């Protein structure tokens, strides 16, 4: 008897003990799986693809018998979706995103899940369903399922190649519960990573959780106010301070031989001040100056379209109760690119961020782009960068073992 048959015997005994639900596979399922897996030249990949396609046929049949439908056409799945190194992601059942997990054997009573299948908006699913294929028995077994939000309660460990290890005991093995989720639960009830498209902010389209900076920060003075004189009566930015900034900017530009706007008048009206700020914003090539102007506009004319858009989100509930907020601002550049500002503030009655709190930028592959660490008595930390349309990145705010990650696309 070969090793595979030995594994099957151990698996069958284990499944009978758990009284798991089985699905009969039909001869045409094997024929189709053989045809679709033949596109692989590597024998190991061909075998793994064969098993995964059989598992997919089993899932489709099981759903159909319960008046549910797998929206994907199996014949149209790409090679990348069934290649042996990947799990079956981006499957759709109604409004749910489903990830199908299957291996040749689960003798060790655990299964591996690539990190991106949980953390990446492109691959994360509402539901992860584990199906085991027993080729000699011509059947498949529903081992169990787990919802994405349940991963938050698990202490998942990574193996040497970076995959999460999930014990089968952590799965819900009652298939009736899976049916209840698919039929009667809204997909919105299971939070999964989503990409926030920042360019839609410029059209005033925001997803849940992202609020105006004023709503999140309350009475906390924005950064630009800390650098300028405030009106003692209104606690607002002094117009005189803004005009002084403009004149200082003009003097600097004169020294460089770059006269961009005429500020020679003794007094400028508020409208003229706004026009002068916008003129500088649209013409200067100095990135720091552009952000200074944007912050000034946020204070004196926050709805001005030239100032870009900023939004903030309270991360406390996702960061072990630490009261901090993430602010993102996007500012169009003259060359069809976009400047992005990421900033973390303390909230509530906290004056400073916790020491060693980190703001980490990640590329679309999850590799670190930058890391900013809060020091003692830092009242904010930030990072600014430039991006192009279609660029994807993530921002992670972490403190000790707690972290929260937000995903973005320009």
Descriptive keywords:
410 residues; alpha+beta; 5-stranded mixed beta sheet; 30% helix; 26% strand; elongated
- Strand arrangement, major sheet: 1-6-5-3-2
Major sheet, described briefly? 5 strands, mixed
Total number of strands: 17
**Order of SSEs:** HEHHHEEEHEEEEHEHHHHHEEEEEEEE
Radius of gyration: 28 Å
Proportion of helical residues: 25-40%
End-to-end separation = 56 Å
State the helix count.
11
Structural class: alpha+beta
Mean pLDDT: 80
Unreliably modeled segments? 225-235
Could you tell me the strand content as a percent range? 25-35%
Shape by Cα distribution: elongated
Summarize the structure.
With 410 residues, the chain is α+β, with helices and mostly antiparallel strands. The protein has eleven helices and 17 strands. The strands form four sheets. The protein has a five-stranded mixed β-sheet with strand order 1-6-5-3-2.
Task: Describe this protein's structure.
By secondary structure, this protein is α+β, with helices and mostly antiparallel strands. Helices cover 30% and strands 26% of the residues. The protein is built from 11 helices and 17 strands. The strands form 4 sheets. A 5-stranded mixed sheet has the order 1-6-5-3-2. The chain has a 5-stranded mixed sheet with strand order 9-17-16-13-14, with no helix packed on it. β13 and β14 form a beta hairpin. The longest helix has 22 residues, at 43-64. The protein is elongated, with a radius of gyration of 28 Å. 29% of the residues are buried. The model is unreliable at 225-235 (pLDDT under 50).
